[in-house]
Amino acid sequence: MTKYLLLSAALFVIGAYGVLGRRNLLIVLMSIELMLNGVNVALVAFSRAHQNLEGQVFVLTVIGVAAAEAGVGLALLIALFRNRRTVDSGDLTMLKG
């Protein structure tokens, strides 16, 4: 189980670095998906360790949330690119206030 939790932590940390350290919004969305997959690996590992299916039910819920987040996020990203011709988060200062 330790191997899976280390993999989960590594996926989550790589995703967190992508969210906090990058300015490209497409990379940020992919990093959020990576973080959610890290959480899924941890939930499945705990589910297997405790011999119950509750963790796997949560995984299905997280997969549904990730799919909705990807759809809405990509739709917003496409609309933003059509209007501003950029996906750089530093160029979005016009949204302040």
Helix-strand layout with pairing:
Elements: H1 2-21, H2 25-50, H3 54-84
Main features:
mainly alpha, 97 residues
Sum up the overall morphology in one term.
elongated
- The total count of helices amounts to 3
Low-confidence stretches: none
- Strand tally is 0
How helix-rich are the residues, as a percent range?
over 70%
End-to-end CA span: 47 Å
**What's the pLDDT, averaged over the residues?**
92
Alpha carbon gyration radius: 16 Å
Beta-strand proportion: under 5%
Q: Which sequence of SSEs, written as H and E, runs from N to C?
A: HHH
What would you note in describing this structure?
With 97 residues, this protein is mainly alpha-helical. Helix content is 79%, strand content 0%. It has helices spanning 2-21, 25-50, 54-84. Helix 1 (2-21) runs antiparallel to helix 2 and helix 2 (25-50) runs antiparallel to helix 3. The longest helix is centred in the last third of the chain and has 31 residues, at 54-84. The radius of gyration is 16 Å and the shape is elongated.
Can you describe this structure in just a few lines?
This protein is mainly α. It is 79% helix and 0% strand. Helix 1 (2-21) runs antiparallel to helix 2 and helix 2 (25-50) packs antiparallel against helix 3 (54-84).
